[in-house]
């Protein structure tokens, strides 16, 4: 109501409720983040399309590794689509966002955008966990287990996509648990950017679901990845050069290349996990919500824009050049 009053009578003094991302005029009130979301969105979209096409054209010896990286690129591509959807809507509503706020946050497109973001994030995390587990098995237990076959990789990746898509669409159904009656919006409509991150002490509808996915699941995944890489490093270091097989050398080199991708994802996700835990305990103070806005719009999607470069340089053809 305050936004309508200001437009009708500009001289009127009226204080609008504080919002993390938007104000009366803009869906994305921070001008720097407006630019960032376009840059990151286009980079993720174009870069990951390039990676997928590159891996379809160039046939690598390790089909399983190439297949997993292709799926990682597809997951990051979805993040690019999500960011551009938000950026386009920001431009569309520019100057009069207050007229469309409830309609946008309660609409199907916002729910679709939120589901895209969740799918992209979680498929990426689980695929990195799978890749790490495969490298771990090959380096630490080279003679105890069979290598991950292409057929099994397809089945596991299919399960990952199916489970995560189900996780992302469940909140779209009109279940009372996910609906915020006081605000008249659903799970994805809790913010203007349709992202259900739990980065404040306010426990909105479905907050436990967010914590279970973005904190518990991701924390367990990254702890496993961290421990696995430490063990792999120590295992390779203990082996003398004379007893290292060609296979182990090849696997360790591949693990080193993948480490760059995993580190970027780790650096993007750990601040989210830590801040979420601190916020829930009331130990994180962010009066202007600047940290929340930057993490949600810049830090979290950053790896989707950077990963295509890392994927490219993990391709044998480009390494040789």
TrEMBL record:
Its main location: membrane. It is found in: Membrane. InterPro entries: GPCR_Rhodpsn, GPCR_Rhodpsn_7TM, Gphrmn_rcpt_fam. The chain crosses the membrane at residues 37-56, 68-88, 112-131, 152-173, 209-236, 257-280, 292-313. Keywords: Leucine-rich repeat, Membrane, Repeat, Transmembrane, Transmembrane helix. Residues 47-311 form the G-protein coupled receptors family 1 profile domain. It comes from the Eukaryota. The keyword Transmembrane applies. The keyword Transmembrane applies. GO terms for cellular component: plasma membrane. One of its GO terms (molecular function) is G protein-coupled peptide receptor activity. GO terms for biological process: adenylate cyclase-activating G protein-coupled receptor signaling pathway; hormone-mediated signaling pathway. PANTHER family: G-PROTEIN COUPLED RECEPTORS FAMILY 1 PROFILE DOMAIN-CONTAINING PROTEIN, GLYCOPROTEIN HORMONE RECEPTOR. This is G-protein coupled receptors family 1 profile domain-containing protein. It comes from Nematostella vectensis. The lineage of its organism: Eukaryota, Metazoa, Cnidaria, Anthozoa, Hexacorallia.
């Amino acid at each position: 109501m305050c936004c309508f009053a200001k437009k009708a009578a500009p001289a009127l003094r009226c204080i609008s409720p504080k919002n993390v991302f938007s104000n009366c005029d803009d869906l994305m009130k921070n001008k720097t983040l407006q630019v960032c979301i376009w840059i990151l969105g286009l980079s993720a979209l174009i870069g990951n399309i390039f990676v997928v096409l590159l891996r379809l054209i160039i046939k690598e010896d390790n089909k399983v590794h190439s297949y997993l990286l292709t799926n990682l690129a597809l997951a990051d591509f979805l993040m690019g689509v999500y960011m551009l959807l938000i950026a386009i809507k920001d431009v569309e509503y520019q100057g009069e966002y207050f007229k469309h706020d409830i309609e946008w946050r309660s609409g199907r497109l916002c729910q679709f955008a939120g589901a895209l973001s969740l799918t992209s994030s979680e498929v990426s995390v689980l695929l990195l966990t799978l890749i790490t587990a495969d490298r771990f098995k090959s380096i630490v237990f080279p003679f105890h287990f069979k290598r991950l076959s292409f057929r099994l990789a397809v089945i596991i990746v299919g399960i990952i996509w199916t489970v995560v898509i189900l996780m992302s669409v469940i909140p779209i159904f009109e279940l009372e648990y996910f609906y915020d009656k006081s605000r008249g919006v659903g799970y994805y409509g809790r913010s203007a950017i349709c992202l259900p991150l739990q980065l404040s002490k306010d426990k909105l509808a479905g907050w436990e679901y967010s914590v279970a996915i973005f904190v518990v699941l991701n924390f367990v995944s990254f702890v496993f990845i961290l421990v696995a890489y430490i063990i792999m490093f120590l295992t390779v270091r203990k082996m003398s050069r004379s007893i290292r097989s060609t296979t182990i050398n090849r696997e360790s080199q591949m693990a080193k290349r993948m480490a760059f991708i995993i580190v970027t994802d780790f650096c993007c996700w750990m601040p989210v996990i830590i801040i979420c835990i601190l916020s829930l305990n009331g130990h994180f103070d962010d009066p202007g919500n600047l940290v929340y806005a930057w993490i949600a719009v810049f830090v979290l999607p950053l790896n989707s824009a950077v990963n295509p470069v890392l994927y490219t340089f993990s391709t044998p053809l480009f390494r040789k050049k």
